[in-house]
Structures
1.
Amino acid sequence: MRVRIANARLLDPASGRDEQGSLDVVDGRIASVGNADAADGVPDQVIEANGLWLAPGLVDLHTHLREPGQEYKEDIETGTRAAAAGGYTLVCCMANTDPVNDSPAVTEYIQRRARESASVRVRVIAAATQGLRGEIMSEMAGLAGAGAVAFSDDGSVIMDAAVMRRVLEYARGIGRPVIAHCEDLNLRGSGVVHEGAHASCCGLPSSPGEAETVMVARDLELARLTGAHLHVAHVSAARSVELIRDAKAAGVRVTAEVTPHHLLLTDEAIRGYDTNKKMAPPLRTARDREALRAGLADGTLDCIATDHAPHAHYEKDVEFTAAPFGVVGLETALAAGLELVREDLLSPLALIDRMSTRPARAFGMGGGTLEVGAPADLVLIDPERAFKVEPTGLESRSKNSAFLGRELRGRALRTWVGGRLAFALDEELS
Amino acid sequence: MRHLLGIESMSRDEIERVLETSEAMLEISQREIKRVPTLRGRTVINVFLESSTRTRVSFEIAAKRLSADAINVTRAGSSLSKAETLADMARNLAAMSADVLVVRDSVAGVPHMLAERVRVPVVNAGDGCHEHPTQALLDAFTLRQSLGSLEGRVIAIVGDISHSRVARSDIYCFTKLGAEVRVAAPPTMMPAGIEALGVKPCFSMQEALPGADVVVMLRIQQERLAGALFPSVREYAGTFGLNARTLALAKPDAIVLHPGPINRGVEIASDIADAEPSRILDQVTNGVAVRMAVLYLLTGGAS
């Protein structure tokens, strides 16, 4: 069976291709790309793309799928359905499940549940330390053997520098990156928002960008010491971008991600005490946001990652300080990224690079390419398709989006995983 | 005015209106029979989830002088101790046909949040480190009794500005009424970006008080010691305490306010608190009148 997606704008950062053409899929793999000719065979089915964008499926390095243990927020089925609807074909799920993913048994369980119920590919991030306690490292070799692609304690920050050093050293031996949520929990204290005029007016406890930057600096130094691959999660402060830029120039093995909400919003958004603007790290100033955008554009920040963090409505419907940190993001990330394209910060090709090719490479995973022979993990994008972000329109079980009520532009119309249709927005492509 | 959530969102006209209405309410409090039937049949629920004596009693008296039924809810013994969420509790109180919810909470933004979820007017009676609008209104009312107008007056607010809802509301209120406001604190108690509120941050009494018509002293919470914001009570009293020596830095006839409860010998010397320049008890008296005015205006009393 040969399926041809015809007359698409093919965007393939891996090869630099950005041209009108068609792409053939045979047996779940890309069989030809570019201008199909007779040698490519006669297609059994033709999907007319009418100039829509066809790109490798998006890859998210930072997703909380909440299974096992918190299925009332999200599970692998709903979370990956949200991923497919957002144009993602691969997500990496964080280890702070219940029980914590710090053992091969949990890693294997998640992968089994993914085989049973997931719409897209799921890769597993395992805990760096046992129980996320920041004390004793997890069985990283066993976890890697079971399929873990990276290690992280995420928001349970490893505050002890000696432990972090050993984790990095050990992970280096196993050939896996360590993902660091860089926040000094002492400096953050009770802070729930960024320290500045908006926090001062709101009277909310706050912490400065330095709560992040001192840890970015520490972890970059430890990455330099150990030679390990450090991946800095959700960079939020301007100064962090500078530190990472300098470290990269000095040859430190570091990659970094930034979230859609930090790219689009600032701390001004907290003024209404909307708990869907509460996340860690917090939204920061316009100056920070500009630095993040510039860092993403020049490649200092390798990729956009969602930090998709579902929470039930009733958990967020409480006092601002009592609400859990985090927002969902899988279904709005592409549109958020396209805002940067419309503002000429990124070319369409660069956007796909930051949302697919680079994240796939950062963790040494397949995907992120339209190369012949690669699995047909594809997304068909209408960059102009407008939609209003509303709870009813989201596939995720939780609706805690920072963009609720906002008009966004740009959506996935089709998502294929290994040639199989994982998501379709409209019956017919117009 | 649908709610009174903070001074920040009020116009100068709205502030003036509350202050003018308070004049009439003060007169009621001075009668032998201190009660008018204005809000008869109305129900005011005082939801005080953080401990308070002065403000809670003041709101309760205000409601009763207007003949409203006043109900008090505190955290201990409320459904919140049964893990009901605050939003649900407020919906339940509103469902009992409350006419006003007066809300005090230790978390900033709670009155705001409840106002979005119930159809009842909400009065912020102090929310965390955010605002305490009726305190600012009664402060302005008290100052106008002595000074006539705040236009061009210099007002120094001294204390833990970072954690003070009174400071924020006073800053908004006094600047909207035309005063020049300075705030004084050690840097550990000065909020980031405070200049954005149109005030001058000062780091000593010597910098803040010269030329001041008014000195507002804030209560220093000794439990902040745990947060290591200042080294000792003695050092605080010696550097930012108001006494005869530091008060002499201000104008000779300067007025002293304090939202209470006072820490004698800490932020304010006992003799200053009790002496002529202090208007601390006038503030308390006026507080009832201002809260009567707020309840009256929010329940459509003006229409």
Note: The longest helix of chain A spans residues 210-226.
2.
Amino acid sequence: MLFGIFLGLLLALSSCVPSAEAPQPASALEAAGAAPLSRVSGHAEQSLQTPTYALRGTVVNSVTSEPVRNALVQLFFAGQRFVLTGPDGTFQFDGLPAVGQVNVMVHKPGYFSPQDVRTSSHSFSQNMRAVTVGPDQPPIVLKLIPEGIISGRISSDGGEPIESLRVHLLSDGIEDGRKVRQELRAVHTNEAGEFRAFDLAPGQYFLFVGPSEAESYPANGPQQGAQGYPAVFYSGSSELASASPIEITPGTHVDINLALSLQPFYRVSGTVSGFPSAEGLNLQFLDPAGQPVGVISDFDPDKGTFRTLPMPPGPYTITAQAQDSKTQRTFFASRSVNLNSDLSGVHLALLPGATIPVNVSVEVTHHDSVELPGGLTRISRQGTTITVQANQVPVRVALVPKDPLLSQMQYGSESTPNAGNDSLAIANVPPGTYTAEIYPNGIYYIQSARSGSTDLLREDLTIAPGGSVQPIQVVVRDDFASLDGKISSNAQADSAVVIVMPEDAPRQSRQVVMNNPKDSFHLSQLAPGAYKVLAVDRLDNFEYKNPDVLRKYLSKARDIALLPDQTASVDLELVRLGD
Amino acid sequence: MVLQIVSSLLFVFSLLQQAPALAPPPQSFRISGTVVDALGGQPLARAQVSIDLQTERDSTLTTTTSDDGRFAFGNLAAGTYALSARRKGYTDQAYKQHESFSTAIIVGPDLHTGDLRFELRPDASVSGQVFDEMNEPVRNAQVMLLHQGLRLGRRAMWTQGQSMTDDQGHYHFGHLPPGTYFVSVTAQPWYAQSVPRQHADPHPAPDLFVETSSGDPALDVTYPVTFFSNATEISAASPITLHPGDAEMANITLRPVPAIHLVIRYSPSSESEQFWVNQITLHVADGVNQYLGVQTTQSGPGAFEIMGLPPGRMSLGLVSSKGNESASGAQTIQRSGDSEIDASDAPPSATVKANEPISRSQTLQLTGDTEINASDAPPSATLSGVITMDDGSPLSGPAFLRLHSVATGAAFDAQSQANGEFSFNGQAIPAGTYGVIIARPPASAVRSMSATGAKVSGRTVEIGASPDVRLSVVISKGSGVVKGFALKDGKPADGVMIVLVPQSPEHNLVLFRRDQSDSDGSFNLRGILPGKYTVVALENGWDLEWFTPSVLQKYLAGGEKVQVNANGKLEVKVNVQQ
């Protein structure tokens, strides 16, 4: 039956494949690959009048320059055509009218396109490469960047393979202008203690293995009690800070062997108090990397007592969180322990999270707004027209934990349901240190934001356990400034990003992404004050919120002072990152 | 002993109670023995041996065997210990392990727990590489290892493991018990593109298709499910026979075929009606189904196109839902071997309650592009009912009820409300016979059932053509206990399979209880519902199709008949049968 289907496909295709270019009878794909050539005959009438051209090329490995066979080359022009490269890596598209530029894209498992690697973006348009079709067009060379591979073997110090151990691969990325180290992948060792991570883009990686569960409980001998394998960073350190980075360049295959020793594991027991009900209680042990480790083996909801299974020695943060479903309040507790023996009597007292009122003063200096139907308000000023919902809250405040280890959550201001529409608060915030991100709505800018003596535009906010926090006072004004500008660049650039930084409050930076750097830009609703303005060619992989990274480029930034109700102009030079 | 039960309530079987009233100070006891290779019998050095006192949590102790394979634990208190061992190249095992049962070591006065012979079975494995039609490795292919053998006393096929190939196309399944296996591979060609078949719509609405796909129809291919060695049907697949210690290689080459497009037409009876494809499962082998991740597009009003499908038999779960109106269903379609749907059968209608989604289930054998009209398919049975306790007490919380297909092993779950009302809303339950199992409250089971719209036999329900089934399920806390000894020639025998056989066994799988006799010959069957049973002890029961009534029949006469009452505790002695 299968044969019938297969034959059917071949027959269907072969009827339209010129016999001279009949595919090698290797596969359905190669047969299929020849099919689009038949579409050339669809353009036959046209080609009588206009000459057609061929696009020839080779796909090569960017490192070895060796040809890459069986790569899929797609050409986008009035639809799509594709071919597979031959054994010598060559390909050819025939019957193309001289349309100027067409886009081509190349794929092959185990390889990245250069665009993939440069922008770390896999969007369709960015994987395209524009090539010119016409007379005397020389063959093009398409490069594929071979993937990196990290493989290895984990064994005990006696040389026995360790099976089912987790191997974590971390890499640094940039998110919203900040550097974040994130887990890219986790794989397990097999029976032979081996692991393999492939499809790795060039870059810097960190690797750690373990911890295991308790592996043995020696009944006799000098070492009694539970033993297991602790977490170990390559190349043997117990902490990320002293881990060795693994550099992956295109096509590198790094082989790693780690030998681990059994270590005593210890238990923690103790009590939790102050939780409204056991249903919503969550108790976690976090290692220094913020990974949950350890298993609670016993929990008695009546007494609040808990006990863990044996876990590796080292520093831990124990966190407890509980929710009261009736009052919607959240309770928190956390404490640090350093585990180097069985630990009992650890007590966590849950306290309610902070609820911080947000008071907003709106200073209105203009009365030029126009009421529109549908509850909208519009103003036109300094060349900008802004339409907003009239009843929108003037500002949103979000608290972002400084220590991303404990929580990836943000805590945002919301209207408190019982206290009327104008009353805002941030509810259930656990103790910790936070950066306040303040987003004005509508026609306002933020003139100041404080909690007690803390200037939230420039300083972090610290919330003590169970402590109360001074209300957040935000002053917004409507006499904003605007900035017009354009970018000059000698080189061709696909896009540009303008970063506008208040000199004394870099946190309040804003960015404008320009798809066409030749356009001018206009930015309004800026707070009056002194600014540095910088134009760069991309934001990808640019840690612009790190002052040390930014300093390098600040000499190319323009200084400008913005005044209330005024528009300033600036000419910028495009800075190519990495230059 | 049943392995997975770790409970402080575990009954400590003790002859200690018979110890003299003036007991000497607590004695200390010993467990010792030798770990040997199950095949060659040679002692195994450096094996890790563990014991766990069953009445105490986290009481594990481990030791390592010496060069002559010996291990010993001394200074032990009397009690029931689980014994297990592991070593590189061998499967982790409990002592005399069979399925999830093993022989626990009972330690106490006058019990012999030295010189145990612990046979450890060498590991077996299946590994291989998956290649494409260009003879290049296929990465990220899904590989399934199917095990054919005895499960719950009858012949069955089940999924032993799943794995993904790496960049070299490698897969590996280790630590396998001996038996008969098949390997299947599911993958998409890396270059494949799904292209909507616009011509599949007989009433094209051109405006809808302005947005053309960038895909090329010639790349609209897929790999059929492929079995070792390069078969596309399990009937043509090569079985892999694994003995202990075997390391078999099974390489597979995939060949693309045109991807099948399935157009599902559905005429909504009102604008508020919504329709979607809930799930697609591919029938890989009897009892083994695989969920397919497929792309669905709405190719026009009332037409859905599922792309990238491999050929084969598959079940579609289709759901329609509408606001507050009632809906009607239509004819039955259970197709296999044909892809043309005849819509001419007269549709019987059924009224469905407002607000409840209607589920339909269709089985199709796909060999080429297919179009079906889902409006013609009948809504699957809407199954609802009520669960009550046999003693009239209220449920302690929501109950979980599971329907277990006798033919395919497919399972469907429902959770009751606090008052016991349950419904399988939104789940397409195909016609067939189902065992009814209560998963919660724990240790409870169906005592009796009645139904409207379906036929009930014992603990099974046969769902047929009726669109509306209501089940009334009375459940009982299984609280009876039967304990005792397995005796061979009048002496306690360990490692023996003990089966508690209900009356009408074929309809009462859920009433069966099993155990394995421990080192002193004792066994303990718990969670038993009131009723009449026969306890049989089978020396070679582990290789027996005991769920086949005719197989079990000849052993019943040699068993012990018991009548278990609620909370009843019985003690029996059972003679071991060959």
Note: Chain A has a mean pLDDT of 81.
3.
Amino acid sequence: MHLGRTARIALRLGAALGFAVIYVPLLLVLVNSLSPDRSASWPPPGLTLHWWSVAAGNSGARAAVWVSVKAGLGATAIALVLGTLIAFAVARHRFFGRGTVSFVVVLPIALPGIVTGIALNSAFGTVLKPLGVGLGLFTVIVGHATFCIVVVFNNVVARLRRTAASYEEAAMDLGASSFRAFADVTFPLVRSALLAGGLLAFALSFDEIVVTTFTAGPGIETLPIWIFNNMTRPQQAPVVNVVAAVLVLLSVVPIYAAQRLSADTATSSRV
Amino acid sequence: MTTDATPAAGRGTVRRLAGTLHRRPRLRLTLLLTAPLLWLAVLYLGSLTVLFVSAFWTTNSFTSQVVKVWSTDNFHALFTTPVFRLVVLRSVGVALAVTVLCAVIAFPVAFYTARVARPRWRPLLVVAILTPLWASYLVKVYAWRLILAEGGLADWMLRPFGLSGPGFGLPATVLTLTYLWLPYMILPVHTALEQLPDNLLDASADLGARAGRTFRSVVLPMVLPSVAAGSVFTFSLSLGDYITVQIVGGKTQLIGNLVYSNIELNLPMAAALGTVPVVVIVLYLLAIRRTGALNNL
């Protein structure tokens, strides 16, 4: 389409404005973490690293990071196993209800988090409480794993669809058992998809707040919950600012890794 | 001799098992699906079903205990209580406003990244759109809390014009949600614009259409299904959100807040309220499916 000069300039300006809107808030979080002031007033009266050192020693934030890491690793491990199993079933078999299975996998992330949250909360209440098991880290992991399955599934199923089953058949024609064919042929083919899916699952779990609210027991505080609880406390504001800035900086890691792992994950975003 | 025989026997068993599995695809399928389906169908769908059934139960107003007697009182209350109706309408309005804003902002950005920017730069620009998706949800909302706070960036930027920022409230909620879900709209629109065949645009120009006419008659109809695909995310994510409105919404209440505030004292009512976003999203998906957009997801 031939665009006039003015149209091109207008589009450039519009896009520049769009990118500014996307990045200014993130930059603001970074700058704000260096502000000596407790309030969010702009421009900051000066720049200091004082709050970074205060935040480094903040036991609440550190404990919350640790809880989040444990929950993320647990949920990722479960999601990797279950997501891969479903992916193999859907990609390598034809069976009644195959479409339904793919639908049920997406459901936990498609429904509003609050619906998933209260459903799991009341189920845990009715099933686990009589067994003497209360809400805790375990229930957080179960809740997170439920909506993490889909990202592993999506990655692995996409990879399996692009690699023909004939590789495995060739291995078995050459005398490999189905286990051997899996270990030597199939697994290396899906390994990077598993890594990418696992990374996505961990990121998703690490960032989750709604389902966590309903599945965490008393005393279980993941990092998002900690931020949410401390966000409105003026006393804690500088530490929250630093934690937020660290999270902004860390968000570059998964995008870099996803880019390196596989081209298809980078564009399929985190859904 | 026994030391030799054991691994051989072990290997034989594994080999036989592999053979059995290979010959019996049904058994293989059962083994693959049992654990995931127990998790998703029994644990997840089971809890969802119980939740939606409990929407038809009631609560003893003195003890807050759930009474398992079938009644449609909660849904009756849902349709007749003015507050509930207002909040539901407001939530749908917010979700629609966010969707429209996202589409309006996404178009110039995607048009630039897909067709105007130098081809060499395009993949990098896509990464630039994607990166904020990885920044923590809560941090992005917090960023807007900082921007919209009294004396914050918004106030500072508007002061030369004699204006002040919108402060915390409904407009702040719409703004923040638009920011949060914008990449979900830009990406599908970018992809659609990128895949637009050049010869269609040339043909339109050859037939005498100017850029504006080509845009309206060729580009827009071909990109609309992708806008619809993006809107599935912007709409449903906005409708279910209740954290953002707590942080930047002041006293504004959306449907999620009503669900949340009813959980402790009246779980059946919370469940009934929780069905609202689900039903609205399903209706929205059904409407969108007619455009063929869901095949693009």
Note: Chain B touches chain A through 96 residues (CB under 8 Å).
4.
Amino acid sequence: MKLDYVMLLKILVVAAILAFLGSWVASYAYEPLDKAAEILNLKEVEIFKAPLSGYTLGWKTINLLGYELDVSGVIAGIIGTLIVLILAYALASVLSRKKS
Amino acid sequence: MHMPDGFLTLQVATIAFLIDIPFWILSFKKVRNTFDAKTAPLFGTLTALIFAAQMVNWPIGPGGTTGHLIGSPLISILLSPYSGVIALSIILLVQALVFNDGGLTTYGGNVLSMAVVGSFVGYATYKATLKIMGKLKVNEKAKIIVASFLGGWIGITFAALSTGIQLGLSSSVFGYGLSITVPVMTISHAIIGIGEGAITAAAVYYVSKVRPDLVREE
């Protein structure tokens, strides 16, 4: 397998765009499991408070092009993407190094 | 599909975690034999892409519900189902620890559904479809599109079935038994999963054009 830096860059750009969209215009989530829990009045048991709980830092939103943009949500999404990138790359690098 | 803390009984959560262990061991062994210095960056970027894509919700579920990509079928088709298990295990861990998206006690259950079932069922469906269509006189690209669409669609539907079974077996805390949780989760995600299938097909088709070495048909 050859290493294609252009393709890797393209994937990262798409990931950044998705993190932006997912934290803004497509962030509304109401999954079938949420609906069932709502009907049953079932509450999550919060055993700890995550640092970026709810994919936001809790800052105020700004109005951009008619949309309420949660800037901290976008930053949280980008931070999450970077954490996953670093963890996955580090783990894969360690595994491939052990092989050699 | 992420089950938060409190939705599974301790017994079901523990059994799900124990089922995951041999899949983790097998996946790490397989990946260690196949990964090299060139695969590691691709695995890292694809895993980050799937994490970002999971934040995008589409409102096509029944009753005004939304859905999102799980992505394990996509990584499984492009790299391997073992890579899919490891990638989704990382994503689910970060989502639980950093974002409270999916619980810690239910981590094993979420891994079982989205990482293990999503990866292996998605990949098996993709390969089986290619094999069946291999006997037909159909354009190669069409085979890849149909096979990857079915891989994504069936992969997420079976992942939801797994979640439905776990919730139904946890009726003492979740409130509904298997007769409700299994059809509700499976049918709703069979509809939502059309999006998973379409995105998987589009992504695999694109990769087959720019990096055909990643989409092997054998």
Note: The longest helix of chain B spans residues 178-210.
